Amino acid sequence: MLRLSNAISCVLVALAAAASSSASSQPFENSAIVRTIDLGGSLVHVTTTFALKALKDAVNVYTITLTEEEIFNTSWLEVNVKGKQHPLTITYSGAPAGSKFHNLDVNLETPLDAGATLNLVLETVQTHATWPWPKEAAQDEKQSLKYETSLFVLSPYNTSVQRTKLKSSSPGILSYTTPDNVQAFTLESPVTKSGATVTYGPYNNIPSSATPEFLARYQQPVVLHYNYDYPVLEVLSLKRAAEISHWGANLNIQDDIVLHNAGPQLKGHFSRLQHQTQSFYGRGAPHVLPLFTVQLPPGIRNTYYIDQIGNVSTSRLRVAPSVARGSKNTQNSIMELKPRYPIMGGWNYTYTLGWDASLGDSGSYNSKTGKYIVSVPVMTEFPGAVVNDAELSIILPEGATDVDYVAPFPALSNDVSTHVTYLDTIGRPMVTFKYKNLTNKHAKPIYVSYRVPITAHLRKPMAVATVLLTLFTFAMVARRVDLTIHKTSTKKM
Ligand SMILES: *[C@@H]1O[C@H](CO)[C@@H](O)[C@H](O)[C@H]1NC(C)=O
Ligand SMILES: *[C@@H]1O[C@H](CO)[C@@H](O)[C@H](O)[C@H]1NC(C)=O
Ligand SMILES: *[C@@H]1O[C@H](CO)[C@@H](O)[C@H](O)[C@H]1NC(C)=O
Ligand SMILES: *[C@@H]1O[C@H](CO)[C@@H](O)[C@H](O)[C@H]1NC(C)=O
Ligand SMILES: *[C@@H]1O[C@H](CO)[C@@H](O)[C@H](O)[C@H]1NC(C)=O
């Protein structure tokens, strides 16, 4: 074991040596790197465009380097050729020994020849990357957050010019870091602010920066402090159960949710009067959540919204008509959820939201393979919120076999088990997926396929018939018994 790891580190050292000695034979150079960071609440969207130029023939692997903090905070990542919607394959190629950065190899699909140029767009979503500052706010105060990132986008290749723009959704940028020791890359001011945007750079003629030397010498954290006008929301826990029933052709989806307002803690007590006055003048505190809206599928029925006290009747639902599967019209139903009390910073809110939908809207039968296929979304997009812990269970019809699924991204864990409910004879197969740190980008469907043998279709009616027969017999017996008792008791009285 020890020898093996020694061997590996020898190889790494050799590779590192090869990499540094061949600095002049880099396969690419970057004409420009532009990083745009949309400062948010619990989600921060980052778009980085690499304008690259091939320096050799037939090169097809471009390496993107992320810093350690970035990779730990990144929950979703995709690389596209600019203007295309076809994500490229990325291979994680690890962190060079002793370094504080991670390499991702992007497969360009079409090899480039020397002189050819291409624009690659790296899109990431960071979670839990901001924090409220100050940590407490009174009901009538503003909310402000801090966000930290690294000054330079790293790259193993030389870069002619790079800049980073941080954009806040509201104009109040309270403070930002002025970087040190960047005279080598710019003669101008190293940072400028214009309205709600702070720009670091342009920085010129940056050598290969994915090296420990560059990091030690030039890399530095930059921190922004900005006002944020919306509540910072986290879903601490989402448990979704999707139950497929062929009997009744129904798909029931139920979400059990613990929502958390991760904004500044409320200073002092909550005053409903103050809240109402503020809302009346349209100046509701940004760190108070009075209501929120989610988009549900079209054509849903029997929607229920329950909290720990019971049915919450202060909600509004506008159901969009059910549309034919595969149709391009994807208008959703809109549900406005209004909790019984506004949710203040630091508070949790636990509720259940469920609905029925016609199975035909998301499922179909393939007569060639003899299998049913049903699509179930991993989650319903929760605007601006991260989902810390999610568990999705798909409960298949009783007796289903040959269970298979296609998932849009890997789960932390998944397994197939059996779920037994009332009127079930042999239980239903259940597929469970667990996830952490889901974002709006993860609200995608899982496709489950399965076979239901004819005997399984009959099992339910048989079970119901048996139960009914038993009830009927029991009722008859009970009635006789009851009558007898009744008679005897009246006689005695
Ligand atoms: C990259 O930049 C370094 C220093 O600025 C230079 O020595 C080297 O030749 C450059 N490499 C390429 C491939 O342009
Ligand atoms: C995200 O980044 C911030 C700032 O760099 C850091 O304090 C925090 O611990 C990171 N979160 C995770 C999960 O690594
Ligand atoms: C629950 O509240 C909704 C309004 O959101 C109402 O339409 C429905 O009838 C209520 N259900 C029950 C069982 O009270
Ligand atoms: C919110 O829920 C989390 C996890 O269940 C718990 O750790 C935390 O103490 C709760 N916060 C409040 C204010 O109840
Ligand atoms: C999810 O985020 C939390 C908090 O930022 C972090 O500690 C954890 O490592 C992340 N988990 C995964 C699997 O990304």
From TrEMBL:
This is Dolichyl-diphosphooligosaccharide--protein glycosyltransferase subunit 1. It is a single-pass type I membrane protein. Its main location: endoplasmic reticulum. Belongs to the OST1 family. PANTHER family: DOLICHYL-DIPHOSPHOOLIGOSACCHARIDE--PROTEIN GLYCOSYLTRANSFERASE SUBUNIT 1, RIBOPHORIN I. Component of the oligosaccharyltransferase (OST) complex. The keyword Protease does not apply. GO terms for cellular component: oligosaccharyltransferase complex. GO terms for biological process: protein N-linked glycosylation via asparagine. Pathway: Protein modification; protein glycosylation. The chain crosses the membrane at residues 461-478. It comes from the Eukaryota. Keywords: Endoplasmic reticulum, Membrane, Signal, Transmembrane, Transmembrane helix. Residues 1-25 form the signal peptide. InterPro entries: Ribophorin_I. It is found in: Endoplasmic reticulum membrane. Subunit of the oligosaccharyl transferase (OST) complex that catalyzes the initial transfer of a defined glycan (Glc(3)Man(9)GlcNAc(2) in eukaryotes) from the lipid carrier dolichol-pyrophosphate to an asparagine residue within an Asn-X-Ser/Thr consensus motif in nascent polypeptide chains, the first step in protein N-glycosylation. N-glycosylation occurs cotranslationally and the complex associates with the Sec61 complex at the channel-forming translocon complex that mediates protein translocation across the endoplasmic reticulum (ER). All subunits are required for a maximal enzyme activity.
